[in-house]
Design brief:
Elements (H helix, E strand, L loop, with lengths): L1 H5 L1 H21 L6 E6 L2 H4 L2 H9 L2 E7 L20 E6 L4 H9 L15 E2 L6 E2 L2 E15 L4 H7 L4 E3 L2 E4 L1 H13 L17 E2 L4 H11 L17 H4 L2 H14 L10 H6 L11 E5 H9 L3 H5 L1 H4 L1 E6 L4 E8 L2 H10 L3 H11 L31 H13 L3
Length: 402
C-alpha cells in the first residue's frame, strides 16, 4: 500500500486496465448470438461445412426440417409454417416456385382450394404467411452426357450430331429432335447414321421431379412449331394430356428412363457416370451440369484418378431447360441473409466449387471438372414446364406397366 500512497496514479492505471479487461471479456469478447432459421429443402447444401461456416460468419445457423418443398410438413392438410418450427425459407429447384406452391396449397382462384390462400401465401396456425422475397441462388443447365470409352462420343460427333469448339460441344435443336424421334420410334443407331453403336437409340433421364421436367424438354423437341423449328416452346398441359404425347412419353421412358436410382434427379448421374459402356445399356444421359460435379466431389482421391479413363463428355443443348436453386423467404432474417449472399463472391464460389451450380446470370461455371464445360454459355434456355405438365408425366409413370 505504501507504493500506491507514494504513486497514487499507479492505482488509477491498474483500475483502468482491469476495467478494460473486464469490458473486453464480457462485451467485446462475447460474440452476438447466432440467429437460427428453419428451412425446407437443400439439406446437402446447407449442411456443407463451408456453407455452415459462411452462415455463422453472417450471424446465422440454418436448420433444414425436411429436404423438399414437396414434403408435407408435418402432414398433408395440416402444414403449419409458423408453428413450433417456424419456417423462414423454402429452397426448391423450379423457375416459378411461387406458382408451384400455389398449385400445391391451392388459392382462392382455384376450384378446390385447400387453405383458401391468396397467391404468395403459405398456411399457418396463426394465419397465412406471406412470401416476402424470392432469390435465385444458383442455376444449372440440362446437358446430354455420353462416353467415349467405347467410342460413342466420337461416333456421334463424326455423324454430325454436335459441333465443337475444342472440347466444348453443342447439339442443335434439329439433332435433338432426331434423337428424340428415333427413341420414340425404337429406331436403331444405324438408321440415324451412327455406325458402331448396337441396339436402339435411347436417352436416359431420371423419373423424379427433375426428370419429369427433362422429359417435358425432350418432348418439346419432338414436333416442330408452325415455322418448322424444334425446341422453341415448352409443351403445354393440354398437349401433354393427349394420347399422342402420353404414348410418346411412355416410349421415351421405356427406352432409357429406367436406370438404377432413376427416380432421383441426382442419383441417376451418380449411378451412370462410373459405368463402363459395355455394361450400360443407356448410351446417352440427360442430366444437369451440377450432377457431374456432385458425383466428382463425392469421390476420393484414388477414384478421381480413374476419371480420365472413363472418357465422359458433356454436350450442351442449344435449347435446354435450366434448373434453378431458388429460395423463398418468409421473414426478415432470411431476406437479409440471402439478399446479401446472392451478390457475395464468397457465397458464389461455394455454390460453384461444392455444388457445381452457376449464378443466376450463368457465371461461375464449374470449369475445374473438365475442359468440356463452357465458361461462357451459348445456350438459350427453354421455359421451365408448368407443374400441370410434370404432374401429368408423373401420372403416366405411375400407370406404366399397369
Amino acid at each position: 500500500m505504501t507504493l500506491f500512497k507514494e504513486r497514487p496514479y499507479l492505482l488509477a492505471i491498474i483500475l483502468v486496465v482491469v476495467a478494460a479487461i473486464i469490458f473486453g471479456v464480457f462485451y467485446l469478447g462475447t460474440p452476438d448470438p447466432l440467429v437460427k432459421i428453419n428451412g425446407l429443402g437443400g439439406q446437402a447444401f446447407f449442411s456443407d461445412p463451408k456453407m455452415v461456416d459462411y452462415a455463422k460468419t453472417n450471424g446465422l445457423t440454418i436448420n433444414v426440417i425436411t429436404n423438399s418443398n414437396a414434403d408435407s410438413y408435418p402432414q398433408k392438410g395440416h402444414e403449419d409454417y409458423n408453428g413450433a418450427n417456424k419456417v423462414s425459407f423454402i429452397q426448391a429447384g423450379s423457375i416459378n416456385v411461387k406458382a408451384e406452391m400455389t398449385a400445391k396449397f391451392g388459392d382462392k382462384g382455384t376450384a378446390n382450394p385447400i387453405y383458401n390462400l391468396n397467391p404468395g401465401e403459405l398456411p399457418g396456425s396463426k394465419g397465412p404467411i406471406k412470401m416476402v422475397s424470392e432469390y435465385i441462388i444458383g442455376t444449372t443447365p440440362m446437358m446430354l452426357w455420353v462416353k467415349d470409352d467405347a467410342g460413342y462420343f466420337t461416333m456421334l460427333k463424326n455423324a454430325g450430331f454436335y459441333t465443337c469448339t475444342g472440347n466444348i460441344c453443342y447439339i442443335s435443336p434439329e439433332k435433338t429432335h432426331v434423337l428424340v424421334q428415333a427413341t420414340i420410334d425404337q429406331a436403331s443407331w444405324k438408321s440415324i447414321g451412327v455406325d458402331g453403336i448396337y441396339g436402339n437409340v435411347n436417352i436416359g433421364f431420371p423419373t423424379g421431379s427433375g426428370g419429369r421436367a427433362t422429359a417435358a424438354m425432350l418432348l418439346s423437341c419432338w414436333k416442330p412449331d408452325q415455322n418448322g423449328d424444334y425446341c422453341t416452346k415448352m409443351i403445354t398441359p393440354e398437349t401433354m394430356a393427349t394420347d399422342e404425347y402420353k404414348a410418346a412419353f411412355l416410349a421415351l421412358y421405356a427406352a432409357g428412363g429406367q436406370i438404377p436410382a432413376g427416380d432421383d434427379s441426382l442419383k441417376i448421374g451418380i449411378n451412370w457416370f462410373p459405368l463402363n459402356s459395355s455394361v450400360s445399356p443407356t448410351v446417352l444421359l440427360a442430366a444437369t451440369e451440377s450432377s457431374y460435379v456432385t458425383w466428382i466431389n463425392g469421390l476420393d482421391a484414388n477414384q478421381q484418378k480413374a476419371i480420365p479413363g472413363m472418357k465422359i463428355h458433356g454436350v450442351y443443348f442449344i435449347r435446354p431447360i435450366v434448373t434453378t436453386f431458388t429460395v423463398i423467404c418468409t421473414d426478415d432474417p432470411c431476406q437479409k441473409f440471402f439478399g446479401d449472399a446472392v451478390n457475395d463472391p464468397a457465397f458464389q464460389k461455394i455454390m460453384s466449387d461444392d455444388e457445381g451450380v452457376r449464378t443466376a446470370s450463368f457465371a461461375g461455371a464449374p470449369t475445374f471438372v473438365g475442359d468440356f464445360i463452357d465458361p461462357t454459355p451459348h445456350f438459350q434456355p427453354m421455359s421451365f414446364p408448368f407443374s400441370l405438365v410434370t404432374s401429368k408425366i408423373n401420372e403416366y409413370i405411375n400407370q406404366y406397366g399397369k
